[in-house]
Amino acid sequence: MEDFAAGPGSGPVVVILEPDAIARSDWLSAAQRTDRFASLARAGRTLHAAKPRARVYLDGGHSGRHVAEKQAVALREAGAATSGDGIFTNVSDVHSTADETAYARRVIAALGGRPGLGAVIDTSRNGNGAPKAGEWRDPAGRALGGTPTTVSGLARIDAYHRRLPVGEAAGGVGRPQGPAGSFAPDHAYEPATG
Predict the structure, then answer these.
(1) For 114-148, how does the pLDDT look when each residue is reduced to its tens digit (9 = 90+)?
(2) CA-CA to 17 of 20 to 30 Å: which in 53, 84, 122, 141?
(3) CA–CA dist 188, 148 (Å, integer)
């Protein structure tokens, strides 16, 4: 982390720290969770020490994964309220921006609502909102969501970001595509045409 923190220039930098590292931490043993959360908190401190203008966002999951209060407990353990500047939600997922905005605000409130805590929402494939129940990875009918910006005009929402490049497969089941990370033509065409 020290090497990474030394890399960015002196200007503002935004770090989306370890997607799925917190929201999926239920799968870890208690000792593994403790280690992971300590590592994330240390990463946030290291980045801020090296780059005082850095904004570090930790994994807030998404509105369909955990209730806000549960996610806030894990985020607190990972230092989000002390070593971070907020949370990111919806990474490579499809929940609507409105749902994610409401969810992010609930998580931040459950973290104690410290001034300055904000959220970054991934809008790379959420333009048509959540798909049918059971369709969660690479569902059909995707569209690009809100344009990436650091000026959302909404309280506590610091930015919209497109984490998943258009056309990149997330590794779903039941659709003709390659493994996660590979280019899938239908994933490029659908979002572009809405």
Answers:
(1) 899 999 999 988 888 776 666 666 677 778 888 99
(2) 141
(3) 17
- The Cα–Cα gap between 88 and 16 comes to 7
Indicate the SS3 state at residue 66: coil
Q: Both tokens of residue 188? A: 């490029």
Q: Structure tokens of 150?
A: 């650091």
Please state, in angstroms and rounded to a whole number, the distance separating the CA atoms of residues 25 and 39: 13
Report CA 169 to chain centroid distance, whole Å: 17
Report the distance separating Cα 63 and Cα 129, nearest Å.
12
Alpha carbon of residue 97 to chain centroid: 12
Give CA–CA dist 21/69, Å, rounded: 17
∠9-12-17 over CA atoms, to 5°? 90
**pTM of the full predicted structure?**
0.88
Amino acid code (one letter) for 7:
G
Contact 23, 60 (CB under 8 A): yes
- Per-residue pLDDT of 41-56, as tens digits, reads 999 999 999 998 899 9
Query: Beta 118-122 vs 157-161: how paired, if at all?
Result: parallel
Q: What is the CA radius of gyration of the chain?
A: 17
**CA end-to-end span of the chain:** 39
